[in-house]
Design goal:
By secondary structure, the protein is mainly beta. The chain has one domain. The strands form 2 sheets. It has a 5-stranded antiparallel beta sheet, with no helix packed on it. The protein is globular, with a radius of gyration of 14 Å.
Length: 109
């Protein structure tokens, strides 16, 4: 196929802010997990598919299968949809309180 560009599981985009490897990153409607460190404006490879352990709102319990949303200002996951970006579903339980949850990225925008 002559018009195929790439599989799309990893996208190289300009970092919207300084990022560290393993951090969640939102670029417009695209959410991914950084494969390496990058300064603002530098290219960064983002995995947009897969399961990742990501920070969450500590005071919130999350169950496997719950939709999870990215709070851009806090760089954390929540179950609260309003004003946040849907990034996938939880694959493990996370108690209240706890620092993180495993989430499967939805890979769509």
């Amino acid at each position: 196929m002559r018009n195929h560009v790439q599989p799309g599981r990893t996208l190289t985009l300009p970092a919207p802010y300084d990022v560290k490897s393993g951090e969640g990153v939102q670029v417009g409607a695209i959410f991914g997990v950084a494969n390496g460190d990058a300064s603002t404006g530098e290219p960064v490879d983002l995995d947009v598919e897969g399961v990742f352990d990501l920070p969450k709102v500590s005071a919130q319990a999350i169950a496997p299968g719950d939709k999870v949303y990215w709070i851009a200002a806090d760089k954390a996951l929540t179950k609260t949809a309003s004003g946040n970006t849907l990034i996938g579903v939880a694959t493990t339980a996370a108690a209240n309180p706890s620092a993180s949850v495993n989430a499967r990225l939805n890979g769509s925008f």
